[in-house]
Amino acid sequence: MTDMQYRDYLRTRLKGLIPDGAALPNGFNLVGHVALLHLDSSLSEFAHLIGSATLGYDWRIRSVAVRLGPTEGVFRIPAYAVVAGEPNTLTTHIEGGVKYRFDPLVVTFSGGNRRERIRLRSAVSPGEIVVDMFACVGQFALPIAAGKSSQVFAIEVNPVAYGYLLDNIRLNKVENKVVALLGDCREVHPSRMADRIVMGYLHNTLLYLPAALETLSAKGGIIHMHMAAPTSETVSIASRIGSEAHHNGFMTQTIVRRIKTYSPGVEHMVFDIRATPE
Ligand SMILES: C[S@@+](CC[C@H](N)C(=O)[O-])C[C@H]1O[C@@H](n2cnc3c(N)ncnc32)[C@H](O)[C@@H]1O
């Protein structure tokens, strides 16, 4: 592993091979042995060259994949192609002692949510019942289950992601703490039992809030609702949350946290909703 910043490293390695002043990337998302790169479109013809140089940047990198387009659909399927190194991108990503085995070219694993995964793990109290409504390969469910003696229900609609989730539950030996459910969380959620609910899905998340409120214990609890939206909409979203909760007999206090910029003008935010019976 070199001490140099990635972009400086690329500039030095590729001097004379790519145009001076090329818009080189300043980083990548390392998932297991796979470096996921976003390249400026002006550099498409140099993707293989940049990928090969990237293999030498960090000993952990054995495959380099470049983004081809946006993440698509309800399943959030990423679009990447391997440009250098091993074509096999099935990998084991280890974070905070939790092992995630999956292919990052097949399901999305966000680098930007790392702090949130760690934060949530310590926010949970022993004995809590937690429902992860958009579990994917277990990004939130597994650290929570590994951290405290809590019971976690992990719901995932994509059968491929669900298969990885089952593998990861076994890999982390949390079979006694995590119940995995395959299906749409609006249909297969448990009823009136959760102390805490994680809604780690950014698109039209409010559509799923009624299901979250039906999942919540009658004593109330906390819902972490992720959402991509312009910050100018924060107040109206919070007000929708309040009225939706009221329909279900809950009062709410909501705190909004910013996670990252999702796209120009759109922020990835988390609405931490504390719901109590009215
Ligand atoms: C991008 S992943 C996010 C994973 C993780 N929650 C996080 O925030 O890092 C979103 C996951 O939600 C799943 N999903 C989408 N709609 C769903 C639904 N109605 N019920 C259950 N899972 C759903 C997708 O298949 C995908 O695996």
CATH topology assignment of the largest domain: Rossmann fold
Return Rg in Å. Answer: 20 Å
CATH architectural category of the largest domain: 3-Layer(aba) Sandwich
Compute the number of strand runs: 13
Identify the CATH homologous superfamily of the largest domain.
Answer: Vaccinia Virus protein VP39
What is the count of distinct domains?
2
Sketch the major β-sheet.
7 strands, mixed
Distance from N terminus to C terminus (CA atoms, Å) equals 56 Å
Largest beta sheet: what is the strand line-up? Answer: 9-8-7-10-11-13-12
Name the CATH class of the largest domain: Alpha Beta
Characterise the protein shown here.
- The protein is of the alpha/beta class and 278 residues long.
- It has two domains: 84 residues, Met-10+ protein-like domains (GMP Synthetase, Chain A, domain 3), CATH 3.30.300; 168 residues, Rossmann fold.
- The chain contains eight helices and 13 strands.
- Strand 1 and strand 2 form a beta hairpin.
- The N and C termini lie far apart (56 Å).
- The protein binds S-adenosylmethionine.
- S-adenosylmethionine binds next to strand 8 and helix 6.
